[in-house]
């Protein structure tokens, strides 16, 4: 087992028990942290994170394991590097690099060879995390394991307390949708690690950014429409998957909070659509969900923008004609990625108000940034 990062919480190993109801969970968590401070000597406390049962911690967990998704960014936002992950090929490491936020891959146990394959129980035993920020249904889907397999791992390590942070509920998508918004889930995990004061500092930073955004938005009837496309955008394939805009849709959060209107509102396709349906909607903007994280500016232009402009059908889209093919964070968007993505979409859609978008994420001039990078780092490092 590889050593965990030196920046992890200086707390004891987590002891724990499950059970209790919602009322007990709320009372215990509140009474043990009434001053909002972080301490490794806290009394036992219970946290209820849907769809899991309430769980009682006897000590603050020191280590956690996670798949490469938004909960990795949640942990990093609290200043805690994971001790175990799946493959990191699509993880939002570029944003940590931009902040000079340390992420030491040498101190991480790999749970699987990829994000969705190559899982081995022995890796979980070797990692021996105090808590797993991995949804059980996600793990079952990638591994074929049943409840007994997961309970076996829990009995020898820590509990699984992951939750889904991606999809919004629609008529086409009813299972696997999010029970929480990003910040609702973030508060739950801040309680797991007893970092409520840090969460409140994050919330203040988030609210200040949103106040800036909301002050600059045009009237609702003047806001543009967007078709948010996920699972990659390949213009020459002629196949596009549309992601809805919704308060619980974490992967399209950046468009929703910028007040953009969903070009497919009320008639979300249940599967991929083609150019005919995209042309019928003819959105003002086409959004590449996740493209801000997974692609460089040059890759985005080469694989998304130029192919749309050179495609016989793509050329007929208003968004393509007007240079309104944009990109955002998506699948891996936790609090850190969310700030960068909100800034990027604001500048791409409303440059006259929020400043021109330079293309590469790291090239926003300091005096044109919509959030303070140093303040962000101070919150992460608990200098608050």
Structure write-up:
The protein is α/β, with parallel strands linked by helices. It has two domains: 16-162, Nitrogenase molybdenum iron protein domain (Rossmann fold, 3-Layer(aba) Sandwich); 219-380, 3-Layer(aba) Sandwich (Rossmann fold), CATH 3.40.50.1980. It is built from 16 helices and twelve strands. The chain has helices spanning 22-31, 70-77, 93-99, 121-127, 136-143, 147-156, 182-192, 196-216, 253-257, 275-281, 291-294, 297-310, 318-321, 335-349, 351-354, 373-380; strands at 16-18, 45-47, 55-57, 64-66, 84-85, 109-110, 131-133, 225-230, 241-242, 261-262, 285-289, 325-328. The longest helix has 21 residues, at 196-216. The two termini are 33 Å apart. Residues 1-40 have low confidence and may be disordered.
């Amino acid at each position: 087992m590889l050593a965990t990062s030196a920046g992890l919480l200086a707390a004891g190993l987590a002891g724990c028990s499950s059970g209790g109801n919602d009322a007990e969970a709320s009372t215990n968590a509140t009474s043990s942290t009434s001053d909002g401070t972080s301490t490794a000597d806290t009394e036992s406390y219970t946290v209820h994170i849907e769809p899991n049962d309430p769980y009682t911690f006897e000590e603050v967990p020191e280590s956690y394991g996670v798949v490469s998704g938004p909960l990795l960014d949640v942990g990093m936002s609290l200043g805690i590097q994971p001790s175990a992950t799946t493959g990191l090929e699509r993880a939002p490491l570029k944003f940590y690099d931009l902040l000079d936020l340390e992420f030491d891959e040498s101190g991480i146990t790999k749970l699987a060879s990829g994000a969705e394959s190559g899982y081995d129980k022995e890796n979980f035993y070797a990692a021996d995390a105090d808590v797993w920020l991995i949804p059980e249904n996600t793990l079952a889907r990638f591994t074929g394991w049943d409840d007994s397999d997961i309970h076996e791992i829990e009995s020898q390590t820590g509990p699984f307390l992951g939750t889904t942070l991606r999809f919004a509920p629609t008529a086409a998508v009813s299972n696997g949708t999010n029970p929480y918004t990003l910040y609702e889930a973030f508060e739950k995990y801040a309680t797991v690690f007893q970092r409520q004061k840090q969460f409140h500092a994050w919330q203040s930073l988030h609210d200040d950014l949103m106040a800036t955004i909301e002050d600059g938005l045009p009237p609702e009837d003047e806001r543009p429409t967007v078709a948010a496309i996920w699972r990659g955008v390949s213009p020459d394939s002629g196949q596009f998957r549309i992601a809805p805009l919704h308060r619980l849709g974490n992967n399209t959060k950046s468009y929703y909070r910028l007040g953009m209107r969903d070009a497919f509102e009320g008639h979300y396709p249940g599967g991929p659509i083609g150019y005919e349906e995209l042309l019928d909607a003819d959105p003002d903007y086409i959004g590449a969900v996740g493209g801000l994280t997974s692609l460089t500016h040059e890759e985005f232009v080469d694989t998304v923008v130029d192919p749309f402009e050179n495609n016989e059908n793509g050329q007929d889209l208003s968004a393509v004609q007007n240079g309104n093919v944009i990109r955002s964070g998506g699948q891996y968007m936790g609090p850190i990625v969310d700030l960068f993505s909100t800034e990027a979409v604001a500048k791409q859609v409303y440059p006259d108000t929020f400043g021109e978008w330079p293309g590469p994420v790291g090239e926003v001039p300091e005096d044109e940034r919509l959030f303070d990078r140093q303040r962000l780092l101070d919150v992460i490092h608990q200098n608050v």
